[in-house]
Amino acid sequence: MRTSLCDELGIEHPVFGFTPSEHVAAAISRAGGLGVLGCVRFNDAEDLDRALTWMDENTDGKPYGVDIVMPAKVPTEGTQIDLAGLIPQSHKDFVQQTLLKLGVPPLPDGEGGEGVLGWLHSVARSHVDVALEHPIRLIANALGSPPTDVIERVHAAGVPVAALAGKAEHARRHVANGVDIVVAQGYEAGGHTGEVATMVLVPEIVDAVDVPVLAAGGIGSGRQAAAAMALGASGVWMGSYWLTTAEYELGNSSTQEALLAAGSSDTVRTRIYTGKPARLLKTRWTEAWASAEAPEPLPMPLQNLLVSEAHLRIARSDDPSVVSMPVGQVVGRMNEVRPVAEVMTDLLAEFDQTVKRLTDLNR
Amino acid sequence: MRTSLCDELGIEHPVFGFTPSEHVAAAISRAGGLGVLGCVRFNDAEDLDRALTWMDENTDGKPYGVDIVMPAKVPTEGTQIDLAGLIPQSHKDFVQQTLLKLGVPPLPDGEGGEGVLGWLHSVARSHVDVALEHPIRLIANALGSPPTDVIERVHAAGVPVAALAGKAEHARRHVANGVDIVVAQGYEAGGHTGEVATMVLVPEIVDAVDVPVLAAGGIGSGRQAAAAMALGASGVWMGSYWLTTAEYELGNSSTQEALLAAGSSDTVRTRIYTGKPARLLKTRWTEAWASAEAPEPLPMPLQNLLVSEAHLRIARSDDPSVVSMPVGQVVGRMNEVRPVAEVMTDLLAEFDQTVKRLTDLNR
Lengths: 363, 363
Fold this sequence. Notes:
The structure is a homodimer. Chain A has one domain (4-361): TIM Barrel, CATH 3.20.20.70. The first copy, chain A, contains 14 helices and eleven strands. Chain A has helices spanning 4-9, 22-30, 45-58, 80-84, 89-101, 121-131, 148-156, 168-176, 198-208, 222-230, 253-261, 284-289, 302-317, 340-361; strands at residues 15-19, 34-38, 64-68, 139-141, 161-165, 181-185, 191-192, 213-216, 235-238, 267-270, 278-281.
């Protein structure tokens, strides 16, 4: 399973692994793929710097990348206190009442924190600044093409830019803006995602642009990787599947328990996580937001600020039935905890078997 | 592109073509696939008999099948007049007002008709009776496994039964009921469809049952067929893609115009066609039903009776912007009218190229 991207990026296999965990990202890179560290959880650029320094020391010199969350248009900006003033009281009340109903305890005194600020443009820019001080081989943007000046800076450092797209017209726009690799992310993917499924979206984007396309959404096995490559992709982009790897340390046991138990029908695409449609695990938390009395989610970045304390409380509550977690429909295949290297070895072996099986169909 | 199903059914290629047109179905069979005629539009069993007799004379002795719409549980049954009494006046008013707003003229005096009765259990049973008097090689059921007695009768005639499934648990139940072939139909498919996308659903169902699985949803090219086979399918089931073939004669020019112009984002999954979730072309008609003042769609078979006159009026209105038409996301690839044989030849050639390309990736 080799494409021209392997030579361009210095990787063995065109398997791109997005993860918020530097431990998982490093393991993906060590296994011959490209680990891509999600930066949105780093409010403080120094924390990101420490994580990347750790990766520099733990990737055996293998390439890795980072993923930022930066809209092309600068959205509402400001400190958390400025923004909090834009959140209606009725929304805050709904969140508090829902947590009470779901039995999610308050945080211990003194805990709390500032929420996730990575959705802010200024913070995402600080992630780029820090990342470029490390030997990164890719910057990907979860919200399409970054602003042109950011693309130019990244290119000046000799680093290619990847951007997620859920429609062919978005992919065309990204490439016109200077993006080097398009990640065609289908409906079934976890996190921010569009309405067109991977099977339809990937060939449409491959035909629409003249840069390498990675397929994302629904990929967790060698058969699925082979399907993605059959559709014309130059590589696969996997996010959800690493959430149940042994190296993943960011979650707590209730999150992992919920993911291992979930089937492919147990996800929902909703705006409640960030204000933009994103696929989450279906739990009592997402069901509460789907009820008749729930308010409409707020636009990005307000929605994430609204629910950020709730996310902390939910994470501490240790109750699998209320987890708030982005994950794709491939969660149905995530039924045991395995090391990253084993996931990669199995995927590549099944890919080989699949290609042989397809060849035999034509005999 | 050969699998064991080819030998079992006497076909050249494992390409199953569902279509309401006997002209298209016959052309698919002549081209080496298995044409599967949708029966739901035949209110009168004699009309179906005539269509199948025509197919017997126009398929060069090649195998073909039929598709019925029969829930395993018998739903509300009765004559159209009995059932019409169960439809709330407010629903009828909404339909009339919407057609007025959309500028859809009434039917000429004397026209009207009885609506589509194929959704009724008794009518679907009459379709089975008629079909078994012809040399059919497959009966497929769009709504899962038919009742056990129907399966037994069909088996006694030496004909295998296929059933559509949108979840692995449905597929397991179908096979336990005696179904021989499962059609794993993903979210992106046209008509009745579930929420799990083809990329995730197909391998899940392949792993869940020990009968051949056909992949449906999002397939209209050789790359997509190769992806489906990579996922473990024993063949592909295509429905939407034939709607813009030259042999298709059931639609009117406005329907075809709307399909040719639509992109992959121009569909919507909604209950307004039959009462069960089905993917339709997104038009001013579907948008009206998505508005705040629209009522909830009625359960099957009432919803289809409610809108059946509207469908006739819409079809006669010759306005592409109000078409009511089931179609999958693959509509984005349906951009020109082509003969069935050409579609088949191109699909097979692209399949071959794709398998060669995949083989090269492993060198």
